[in-house]
UniProtKB/TrEMBL annotation:
GO biological process, one term: CENP-A containing chromatin assembly
Name of the protein this chain belongs to: CENPP protein
Keyword annotations of the record: Coiled coil
GO cellular component, one term: chromosome, centromeric region
Coiled-coil regions listed: 6-33
Length: 190
């Protein structure tokens, strides 16, 4: 057999092995999450999903209704982006641990606020006591290009220590808005 054909087969085999590895990891994550649900809960979810899909196939919502709903959601998203200045570009979530009363998830989030890019990585611990659910953010890591602004670096460091996402988003929104004003002003004078 020709070496180039063998090489092509080897590359295809490696690609398939990588795909199998990724699918196995995904399967294990899903299996791990589903282990914590009872057969009754799983059955209720399946029945609920079947009712939803049957409702969709019966045509309860016409394509024009769905298009109108999509346009409405796009308008809402556009308004929120213009109002807050935040535009999220990616988000990933991985469940690290799940029990009946406790869930630990690792989140990665990236986006822009006006012209400032940011990336966040944090763990979210959700605990459930009876009817009460509480969430705690830990291991917060913020990546931003602070450039020559030491105040932004101090802000990022203190926010990472406190682990307050609300403080981060509120402060970044105000800072980024004024950062844009300053940038435009300096461009005007150049």
């Amino acid at each position: 057999m020709d070496n180039s054909v063998c090489q092509a087969y080897e590359e295809e085999i490696q690609a398939l092995e990588e795909e199998i590895r990724l699918l196995t990891e995904k399967y294990e994550d899903i299996r791990q999450e589903s282990m914590f649900f009872s057969d009754e809960e799983i059955q209720k979810s399946i029945e609920s999903l079947q009712r939803e899909t049957q409702g969709e196939t019966k045509g309860h919502e016409s394509p024009s209704d769905l298009i109108a709903q999509l346009k409405s959601l796009e308008a809402d998203l556009s308004f929120l982006t213009a109002f807050t200045g935040f535009q999220f570009t990616s988000h990933s979530k991985k469940t690290v641990e799940k029990t009946r009363s406790r869930t630990v998830q690792k989140h990665r989030l990236s986006g822009k606020c006006h012209s400032l890019s940011f990336q966040l990585e944090f763990q979210l611990l959700e605990m459930q006591d009876n009817e009460k659910v509480s969430a705690v953010v830990s291991d917060l890591s913020i990546i931003m290009e602070s450039g020559e602004d030491p105040d932004l670096s101090k802000f990022v460091s203190s926010t990472e220590e406190s682990g307050s996402l609300l403080t981060f988003f509120r402060s970044l929104s105000a800072y980024a808005e004024w950062y844009e004003h300053r940038r435009r002003t300096f461009l005007h004078f150049k």
